[in-house]
Design goal:
17% helix, Immunoglobulin-like, globular, 14 strands, six-stranded mixed beta sheet, 2 domains, alpha+beta
């Protein structure tokens, strides 16, 4: 696939989709620095929890999008207290099958996305993510998040388009800068399988030869081995104090389903979603919440985000945040009747 060349960019588009949710590009480009190759350091086990505090290093090829995405996701989950993930080859297989299916259904002018496959297609491996995971030999307890990007450029002007690692990093960062994707990415899964792929198309426009590159990234998060638990009364958030490179803008209309249906223009930006959750099945009550700068200036937020479950809470700034800026979050409430009062700061990327 893989190392794509940048050229004169004439058009660019992106879409993200999550099983039970979905999303789109943040509206602000993520950095293209490669994620670290080393696995995240061990994390502390919360009282009463069953989190995986360590995991084996992934076996994805060095410099691949899968390796960059895995390392970043692992660092985030461990740094914010959601638990480590183990790479699972069967989920890798199922993810690759679906991104390949999507690319084969696409063209230079049509971006095919989504979770459903049609029987009878030669690339069909299962109608739904659960079916594809079962077909790969894993089991059906999975959730799927997907990213799709399209770039069109003048074929004769190849520049420095981001390579595989950068695309993988952009994909996972975009998936975390959403509502439904973020929820799925931080769920109680114990395993994950990743895949990315590209397909090139050629076309003529106004006498010029153009190349359209369709890029797909997919992740299947699996809990067939059991669910990681934060523990009674415990909560975890993203961003958290460990995050020093959070995105600062989010385009709700690019997420499927759109968390704010009244916002239909993909150019309209808000701030990055801030997520809080307890264990699935718990009752999370947030009695007070706030987001402010280090100077004490309060940032207006909205919490009417949907659809979410009873153990989840989102607050989303009404406007994009500032880059390279420290923000402080305060949550006060209870998880299954156990009170919490949490304050932490995170930093947006430059």
């Amino acid at each position: 696939m893989k190392a794509l060349s940048k050229a004169l960019i004439c058009a660019a588009a992106g879409l993200l989709a999550a099983c039970g949710g979905g999303g789109g590009d943040s509206g602000a480009s993520a950095p293209v620095a490669q994620a670290p190759d080393d696995p995240a350091p061990p994390m502390a086990q919360p009282v009463g929890g069953t989190l995986q505090t360590t995991a084996a290093a992934p076996t994805y090829p060095a410099g691949s999008g899968e390796q960059a995405a895995f390392n970043y996701l692992q660092d985030v989950r461990m740094g914010c207290g959601f638990g480590a993930l183990n790479q699972n080859a069967k989920l890798d297989t199922a993810s690759l099958a679906h991104v390949s299916y999507l690319l084969e259904q696409s063209s230079a002018t049509n971006l095919t996305a989504g979770h459903v496959e049609t029987p009878g297609n030669p690339f069909f491996t299962g109608a739904l993510p659960q079916d594809r995971a079962v077909a790969a030999g894993y089991g059906g307890n999975v959730s799927e998040i997907l990213s799709a990007k399209v770039r069109t450029f003048v074929s004769a002007d190849p520049g420095g388009e981001p390579g595989d690692a950068q695309f993988g990093l952009l994909a996972i960062r975009g998936l975390l800068n959403t509502v439904a994707h973020l929820s799925d990415a931080m769920n109680g899964a114990r395993s994950v399988g990743l895949a990315d792929n590209t397909r090139n198309f050629s076309s003529m426009q106004g006498g010029y030869a153009f190349t359209t590159v369709q890029y797909r990234f997919g992740a299947l998060l699996g809990a067939q081995e059991g669910t990681q638990l934060l523990g009674p009364g415990n909560i975890a958030s993203y961003p958290c104090a460990a995050i020093q490179d959070a995105e600062y803008a989010f385009a709700p209309a690019t997420e499927i389903p759109n968390p704010f249906p009244a916002i239909t223009d993909t150019a309209v930006l808000v701030g990055p979603p801030v997520y809080l959750r307890a264990d699935a099945g718990a009752l999370l009550k947030v009695d007070s919440y706030s987001l402010g700068t280090s100077a004490g200036v309060q940032v207006p937020v909205r919490t009417d985000v949907g659809p979410i479950q009873g153990h989840e809470f989102f607050m989303v700034p009404l406007s994009p945040l500032q880059p390279a800026t420290v923000y402080t979050v305060h949550f006060k409430g209870s998880a299954n009747g156990q009170a919490f009062d949490r304050t932490f700061s995170f930093r947006t990327r430059s």
